[in-house]
Design brief:
Quinone Oxidoreductase, Chain A, domain 1, 2 domains, 7-stranded mixed beta sheet, 28% helix, 26% strand, binds NADP nicotinamide-adenine-dinucleotide phosphate
Length: 312
């Protein structure tokens, strides 16, 4: 049983699809928790992602979702995960895989990281796309960035970015609204309340920054103003890329786009941090998979603090 969206912007529907065959290095994972990301509902409408899915994705109905945590129930002959392993991972439509809003997913072994018993499926399912995105942002900053400004500090990406910054001993500043100031401060960051002052001007007093992570989908922070807050060799990592910023990202060394693609290499260190308590999941709500439409309505409103989970 999976949640599918067979044509453009239509209600989700639970349908039965035939079980996918396993390749030699594939595993079948019984899904226990699904992390909701804005990309899940963006995939349902037109736009570049949906187009990409049409060209390179699997045929048949679109099964949305990327992030999952669950148990391996079947393993191909060359897979390096055993039946019974607890794992977290992300699906990849460019490998012709169906999405994670499902009872089970079939993915390559190296798309999954193993979970210790101490890490719950719910906690793990918060990680894949947000964690991979945050890790990529630190990577594009090169060397060892010492300071970060996070725009969208209370969202899925923002929270894990701040927690990673804390684990790395970085100076962190997070832009959020009044209701999330205490949360951002509890993550070891200086909070800037965007409802009380012009946030980028307020951030100037705490700069310059080696890295600025732009992770707000519902508001615009002008790129030029962001760049003026950078240290020499600093970089703006655009998690959300507006058409107007494509040229800057293509030609300016101080601006780049980041894409979070979960795989074992990026997830294993995140799972370690989760097990050590250095990353703590913040789950706003657990919603039954059958009510995925409701989860998407909540996510679309752009107010989620931490993560929404779906439970099959
Ligand atoms: N490139 C990639 O690989 C990648 C990966 C993940 C996500 N994304 C994109 O990045 C965006 C964020 O993703 P997400 O999962 O973090 O989203 P999210 O969890 O839905 O983010 C919602 C958060 O943003 C905060 N927010 C809203 N307006 C804000 C503003 N003007 N300034 C600062 N914070 C604001 C909201 O709190 P308040 O309303 O209280 O401020 C809320 O806590 C989405 O557009 C998503 O599609 C891209």
């Amino acid at each position: 049983m999976v949640v599918t969206s067979p044509s453009s912007e239509i209600p989700l529907a639970l349908v039965d699809v035939p079980a996918r065959p396993l390749g030699p290095r594939d595993v079948r994972v019984r899904v226990r928790a699904i992390g909701v990301n804005p990309v899940d509902w963006k995939m349902r409408s037109g736009g570049p992602l949906r187009l990409a899915h049409r060209f390179v994705g699997p045929s048949g109905p679109l099964v949305v979702g990327v992030d999952f945590a669950g148990e391996v129930v079947e393993a191909g002959p060359r897979a390096d995960l055993a039946v019974g392993a607890r794992v977290v991972g992300g699906t990849d439509f460019s490998r012709k895989q169906l999405g994670s809003y499902a009872d089970e997913v079939v993915v390559r072994d190296e798309q999954c990281a193993v979970l210790p018993d101490s890490v719950s499926f719910d906690a793990a399912a918060c990680l894949p796309v947000p964690g991979a995105t945050a890790m990529r942002a630190f990577e594009v900053a090169g060397g060892a960035p010492k300071s970060v400004l996070v725009l969208g500090a209370s969202g899925g990406v923002g929270i894990v970015t701040l927690q990673l910054a804390r684990a790395r001993g970085m100076r962190a500043v997070g832009v959020c609204s009044t209701r999330n100031v205490a949360l951002v401060e509890s993550l070891g960051a200086t909070a800037i309340d965007y409802t009380q002052s012009e946030p980028l001007e307020a951030a100037r007093a705490h700069g310059p920054f080696d890295l600025i992570v732009h992770a707000v989908g519902t508001a615009t922070y002008p790129l030029g103003q962001c760049r003026s807050l950078l240290a020499a060799d600093g970089i703006v990592a655009l998690v959300v890329v507006r058409p107007a910023d494509w040229l800057a990202a293509a030609f300016l060394p101080s601006v780049t786009t980041v894409l979070g693609r979960p795989n074992r290499k990026v997830l294993a260190p995140l799972v370690d941090l989760l097990a050590q308590g250095k990353i703590e999941p913040l789950i706003e709500a657990r919603i039954p998979l059958a009510e995925a439409e409701r989860a998407h309505q909540i996510s679309r409103a752009g107010k989620v603090v931490g993560k929404l989970l779906l439970v099959p």
